[in-house]
Amino acid sequence: MQDPLKITTHSPDRTRFIGEVIGRAIDTNTVIALTGDLGAGKTVFVQGLARGLEVPADYYITSPTYTLINEYPGRIRLFHVDLYRITSQTELFDIGFDDICDGNGVMVVEWADRLEPGDLSEDISIAINTIDNTTREFCIFFYGRKKTKLLQHLKDILTHQ
Amino acid sequence: MGILRILGIESSCDETAASVVEDGVNILSSVVSSQVNVHHPYGGVVPELASRKHIEMIVPVVSESLFTAGIDGAQVDAVAVAQGPGLVGALLVGFCFAKAYAFASDIPWIGVDHLKGHINSVFLESPSPEFPFIALLASGGHTAIYHVTSHLHAECMGRTRDDAAGEAFDKVAKMLGLGYPGGMVISQLAEKGEPRAIKFPRPFLDKKEFDFSFSGLKSAVNRYIQTHSETYQDQIADIAAAFQASVVDVLVYKALRAAMEKKCRHVALVGGVAANQRLRDQMRESAKREGIKVFTPSIELCGDNAAMIAAAGYYYLKDPGRLADGFDADVYSRAKK
Asked: How far is B288 from chain A (nearest CA, A)?
């Protein structure tokens, strides 16, 4: 496996910025798996991602923990999924997960580690590690050939600033 | 016209619910899948996370509601059903069932906004507030303040920018190892704790605005647990009490400020979090000082239920201008602006 792209952030704004850069760079039919502890900044990241996908600013990106799937219009439709409350493959089917997997759009999945490996076939996987109160380390993996270009693009923007 | 007997159906998230309500006020039955031991044909336990599971629940729950109400299907005058916001796959079950039921019985049906249902839950009991009033809706999935001018008209003055209040309760419960869902456990523990023992932030945002943000508070509790990992187990009641005090302070402050800005003398507290006793008490006490009266539904009408859908449906049906009852009508996933 390739080495992950590692980025350290020191504020929620910077975490949001990483999301925004990725949101601007990706195209439709992209699945992003997102992992990290409670309070790591997963929803903050998705707020940035939404900005990059041009979701109108009057849509608040709220936590989908309870609602399970939140959907937003944008340059590309964004599905924000939270598997926090999911405990089995059956429940995943029950919430209509398969239906949105087939659709056009960007799907970002929080608590993706609740799935069996391979279930999501994600294009990008992002692990947010909490280092201390304000510091977060992002480990970003890209999968598939067309992602090499995306990786280079993100490296250029995120590491040379 | 005689009594209007409405069958209400709710399936926007976890609960499958059905209820029979007369004239928007008289509850003949209110059945909620997770609260009642419904005998359904497949046997087994009712799943906590019911969405397509609604399909298994809808017929038994509706049958139970008719049975409890002591009526048969032919005595239903209209059907009201939650149309959104919610999980589309879950909403569709109740929605399609309601349309089919109305079509087969040749009676009117009406799609009801789930949030308007919560707001109208205060009219199921007396006394009820007078228009215009302020409604604070706080639940697992929603937290918002409305300026309510009629049964059907409510202007959203503010809403959460990240986590809902109920979700913050559940997540803090999870951090403390109390399981999920844990809103009720937190409030029980908080009674034994000292709210001033720990100082958590009050996320007011801009004090002039009515939006909420509970994500930072959740993180503050998490940080406290991390930095006191050796000792926090002995402080769980204090942590619960201090966290609850933060949430309640913010909810009460914003709701009463909204009432004062709109010069409303009545405030309604609705949604699952409205069952929280500390919130009910503090809202009443603080409101009293401002000469404001607070209205809260009974505990069983705070969480998602179908009686509130039937109640709201009554007012929708009496306002034919807003009637969206074509059989091509569809559900919606997010709150209408």
From this structure: 33
d(CA B164, CA B143): 5
Contact B141/A66, CB-based, under 8 Å?
Answer: yes
Burial of A3 (0-12, 13-18, 19+ CB in 10 A): exposed
Q: Which CATH superfamily is domain B5-119+302-318 in?
A: ATPase, nucleotide binding domain (3.30.420.40)
Burial of A145 (0-12, 13-18, 19+ CB in 10 A): exposed
Search chain A and give the residue with CA nearest B335.
A59
**ipTM attached to this prediction:** 0.74
Count CA atoms within 13 Å of residue A96 on its CB side: 23
| Chain B residues inside the 8 Å CB shell of A60 | 159-162
pLDDT band for position B54 (cuts 50, 70, 90)? confident
CB contact under 8 A, B87 and A133: no
User: 3-state class of B257 per DSSP?
Assistant: helix
* Contact between chains at A62 and B49 (C-beta distance less than 8 A): no
Helix (H) or strand (E) holding B295: strand B293-295
CA distance B158 to B144: 6
pLDDT of residue B178: 85
CATH topology classification for B129-296: Nucleotidyltransferase; domain 5 (3.30.420)
pLDDT at res. B36: 46
Contact list, A94 vs chain B (CB under 8 Å): 47, 49-53, 89
φ/ψ bin of A68: left (φ > 0), alpha (ψ from -120 to 50), beta (otherwise):
left
Q: Do A96 and B337 touch (CB under 8 A)?
A: no
The structural domains of chain B, with segments of one domain joined by +, span 5-119+302-318, 129-296
B301 DSSP assignment: G
- How distant, in Å, are the alpha carbons of B9, B40, B103 from that of B97? 9, 17, 10
Lowest-confidence segment of A57-66, B151-160, B176-185, B322-331 by average pLDDT: B322-331
- In angstroms, the CA A99 to CA A81 distance is 13
| CATH top-level class of A5-159 | alpha beta
